Amino acid sequence: MRFTKMNGLGNDYIFLDGTKKEIKLSESEIKKLCDRNFGIGGDGIIIVTKASNADFGMKIYNSDGSTAEMCGNALRCLAKYTFKKRLTGDKYLKIQTDGGIRFAKINGDGTVTANMGKPVSDFNLIKLDFDIDISGYTVNAGNPHFVILQAFEERIFDEYAKKISEYRSIFPYKTNVEFAEIYPDKNMVNVRVYERGSGETLACGTGATAVFEICHHFGFLTDNAIVKLKGGVLMCSHNSKGEILVTGDAKFNYKGETDILNGE
Asked: Which one, of 59, 50, 210, lies nearest residue 123 by Cα?
């Protein structure tokens, strides 16, 4: 099986070309490929497919074998992947995801801008029933998020992020979790991310979108702001339609061929 390894700010994915032949992977095969010691290693797998109403489709698998509706970092990487592999000559793409249609554009400086659409939130503060005060906001950015606007201690994140993600009474299908510390004087927010199905990741495009949506709504950030993640920086802004645009790096790691699934 031929593959390409890519990352968006360290959020790394194994890309497979399913445009010519359908690719089906079992949960155990996905886990095996994503294993960082015995496999290729990655936060997940992206299968690029044909699409009837878009340039390409994008099937997203988390490293635990579960599926995800959307991924902003993978969306940006997909634009570069399809262009470099000459699957398209266009630098502006319409992409079908399980979270809806999204758009991505390769910029002249090598960065990629993804149109993440309009996130949905009721902006109501939700308090979770833990032994410490943890409150946040639900946001749907094509996939579910819970945004916590408070400074994050390492201990708090390490102990509670997974518990929050699996707080089934509110999140029956689990949720992505962001701890966000705001720096209004710098028009910046510092974010740490726990992705359902993958654990902590260095970056999350939909997570940055969700955090920006909440912070902008409450007036903590302006229309053009910086979202800083462990893996680097994403620039977030609104277009004239009120959709959120996220701009950042999308990098190739390497390409190769694996016989892992054949037991070799």
From this structure: 210
Which DSSP string do the residues of 49-92 spell out, in sequence order? E--SSSSEEEEEEETTS-EES--HHHHHHHHHHHHHTTS-S-SE
Superfamily of domain 126-248 in CATH is: Diaminopimelate Epimerase; Chain A, domain 1 (3.10.310.10)
CATH fold match for the domains 2-113+250-262 and 126-248: yes
Kindly state the greatest CA–CA separation across the chain.
55
Q: What is the pTM of this model?
A: 0.94
- Give the whole-angstrom CA distance, residue 92 versus residue 188: 28
Q: Which residues are catalytic?
A: 71, 204
Q: Extract the residue ranges of the chain whose pLDDT is less than 70.
A: 263-264
Give the CATH number of domain 2-113+250-262; options: 3.30.428.10, 3.30.470.20, 3.10.310.10, 3.20.20.70: 3.10.310.10
Condensed to tens digits (0 to 9), the pLDDT of residues 13-66 reads: 999 999 999 999 999 999 999 999 999 999 999 999 999 999 999 999 999 999
Cα-based distances in Å from 134 to 120, 129, 137, 146: 21, 8, 11, 11
